Amino acid sequence: MWPNLESLANALISSLVLTHVLAQSPEQLTAQNPCISKPNCHECIQTPSCAWCFDPKRESERPRCFQPAYDINPNQEQCPEEFTYNPDNIMSLVSNMALTEAHGKIGGAGGTIESGYAYSNSSSSSSSSSSSSSSISGGESNWSESGSSQIVQIAPQRISLSLRARQSYSIFMNYTQAEDYPVDLYYLMDLSKSMADDKEKLSLLGDQLAWTMRNITSKFALGFGSFVDKVRMPYVSTVPENLIQPCPGCAAPYGYRHMMRLSKDTCRFSMMVKQAEVSGNLDAPEGGFDAIMQAITCRDQIGWRQKARRLLVVSTDAGFHYAGDGKLGGIVKPNDGECHLDTNGYYTHSSLQDYPSVSQINAKVKKNSINIIFAVTADKTSVYEQLKSHIEGASFATLSSDSSNIVELIKNQYQQISSSVEMRHNASSALSIKFFTRCLNKDGALMNTNKCGNIRVGDIVNFMIQMEVVKCPKDPKDWRETIEFYPVGINETLIVDLEMLCSCPCEQPDSPNYEINSPICHNHGTYKCGICDCNFGSFGRYCECTTEKISQNTTRGCIQPGSPSGLECSGRGSCICGRCECEARGYSERIYGPYCECDDFSCERHNGQLCSGHGVCDCGHCICQAGWSGNNCGCSEAKEECVNPENNEVCSGHGICECGVCKCQVTSEGRYSGRYCEKCPTCSDRCEEFKDCVQCQMYETGPFSKAECLEKCKLFTPIPVDKVVVDEKKNEISCAFYDEDNCRYAFVYYFEAGHFVVRAQEHRDCPPKVFLLGIILGVVAAVVLMGLAIVLLWKLYTTLHDRREFAKFEKERMMAKWDTGENPIYKQATSTFKNPTYAGKS
Ligand SMILES: *[C@@H]1O[C@H](CO)[C@@H](O)[C@H](O)[C@H]1NC(C)=O
Ligand SMILES: *[C@@H]1O[C@H](CO)[C@@H](O)[C@H](O)[C@H]1NC(C)=O
Ligand SMILES: *[C@@H]1O[C@H](CO)[C@@H](O)[C@H](O)[C@H]1NC(C)=O
Ligand SMILES: *[C@@H]1O[C@H](CO)[C@@H](O)[C@H](O)[C@H]1NC(C)=O
Ligand SMILES: *[C@@H]1O[C@H](CO)[C@@H](O)[C@H](O)[C@H]1NC(C)=O
Ligand SMILES: *[C@@H]1O[C@H](CO)[C@@H](O)[C@H](O)[C@H]1NC(C)=O
Ligand SMILES: *[C@@H]1O[C@H](CO)[C@@H](O)[C@H](O)[C@H]1NC(C)=O
Which of its termini does the chain have fewer beta carbons within 10 Å around, N or C? Predict the structure, then answer.
């Protein structure tokens, strides 16, 4: 028993530092520990802040999923490093070329010096179009892109990331708008009859359009295509002659015709526009969607450059047909979203498949980073305004009836498009992604937005992308994901190769600790990550139970023999196959023992600390560190506190020191007392001994004369104080007496460094002197005065009474109306009668 305790105590001392950490975060300790309830490794690491211990030697009742920050119960071993699985988020930059700076300079690890020269030379002398491969040589020639492909508008470009579930991680991304970024503009024109005047105007404005755009970028390319509608009833009249010439001076109707590949040759643009012939159709909406789909998907024919701002201007004065409308003409095959152009640039599948839907167009636009600009006449704006909101990066503007404002319109739209950036991503729903940016306001607050406006060439916008795996997908194949972050309308991306850390390596069959039907699991389960994963029909920690066994009476082994309550597993666990599985507790607390009868948290506490912080709790009892004792380890075994300074003896030799307090002996005469047991049972205080000296030294009174005082009182000199207050710490003794003048005086004394220190009251408390004669005279005077007052009151009363009686008498006398000589009861004998009817005059 004892060696065991000693080793415990050693373990405890070595982990004292940890206890200190524990004590610092009590509020965190009380919070619910989310880890302990996780039964296996992958659920554990899908919980933030949890780690898994797959140490085969870990005590079986201890949860394997733990919080590394708090798993520091001092009397338990830590999970060894090599058996802990606690992956961190890992980010590494795969490609991080620096952003292209304004003024055509190229920085960056990726760009070679040669290409940098090529680019800067070409941008400064684009008109010559001779040396640089990036310059446009006009006509239908190929685009060489070695120069412009070095433009970098997004940094970094590729990141690989390993992310734990439910832990958000932020990556940072910069966007800039490079100077002289190539612009591709494909003009898609509705050439139904009503657009004839627009066509004329556009052919005149072609050069102006090119100049204006070339002012913005030297790498401007222009292309042209036109559309009417499907050549089928009811869209187009199919009367044979109408199929040749639907209206006077019109060309045969067609669905879509690509007429000019993207090129720098603007003369050719004007020419092609002039050459294009208008055609005629029947219904109001046109087949614009067919044309848009082809213009986007036929990348090679149209000549879209890889790195360029791609504008698709759709100018029309009518509405549009969309998916489903094809049925009117008996076309039921849905649009396949592929390119179908013949060598002459005609759309071959016009009458074979339906119009595309809005979402098909949107998907293609997103994939190809194309900005559609709808330039429509005023009467159609409401339709296209709605359409715009369903297509990423689309915008619309009002075209004058003859298209005369087209140049201004395109310039404005381009500027609007290029002066803003909107970040998008294609992550799956397993991820939550938020964009934060300050836009151009470097000192402003981070806003939760993916858009910034008013960006000029050279401005750098920093985006913070906050990613979090909200839920691990069911299929392990989906744990790897490639996510693209891209600005709308620009073919540049930040690619994130994401690996979600949703499972543990030790759960893989190739792990060294992985064993199918392992003997540890009673051959009924797979041993992995330190636990048994039981086969169907078996269960228990080590798969020791089967469904047959559970029907037998197994509770007996779970009840502690002789326990008063008779509860299974002491009520703190569950009985599984005759063995107790104790409840898990938070953090470092633990319930254990074969019947869950023990725990390490219900020991005596002192000042709120378990075992006073000087021991560990084992099964309800504190095991104290060396130097400490007591039930709660609150007693220091150090003896200094008990040593009497008068004689340097522990408790003056009359007691034992316990917990820094002297416990004094009891002898036949009684008990020693005092802090150091220095007072013998029969000794009284030394107050009596000191009082005469205090009296003569302080107040020059008392039995000693001056000479005697000097001679006898050498032990101390009292220190005068205003009021004596006993200082318990110094073990002061307080004394108080009344002297012959009936004055109270008090003093205290204690022993220090070989002599007594006495502090005495400076002035005695004497009763105030009483003036006796005054009191007597006062009393006599008061008695006399009182007597006089009573007499006066009596006199006052009688006088008032007399006055009132006299007044009454006077009143009665006044009321007597008779003569003083008349008898009031005498009645005259004569009577007088009057006749009321007699009217005689008197
Ligand atoms: C253009 O290229 C030439 C070499 O072909 C080089 O000497 C010159 O410095 C370059 N110009 C710029 C502006 O980089
Ligand atoms: C155009 O591209 C084709 C193949 O992509 C290539 O064979 C040809 O040489 C290119 N033409 C020019 C002028 O670069
Ligand atoms: C973004 O640009 C700032 C300077 O404007 C730079 O400090 C930062 O490192 C850049 N971040 C990335 C991811 O390139
Ligand atoms: C091009 O810009 C210059 C000034 O930067 C201006 O004078 C000129 O008119 C612009 N040309 C066009 C066609 O807008
Ligand atoms: C975008 O650019 C990459 C090269 O950076 C290219 O492979 C890809 O085809 C381009 N995408 C589009 C739609 O042009
Ligand atoms: C996002 O786009 C990239 C490139 O198109 C693709 O490889 C990736 O699979 C997409 N990611 C998702 C989650 O769809
Ligand atoms: C199970 O064992 C207990 C204790 O021995 C006994 O009291 C109880 O009757 C038994 N129950 C059954 C179903 O055998």
Answer: C
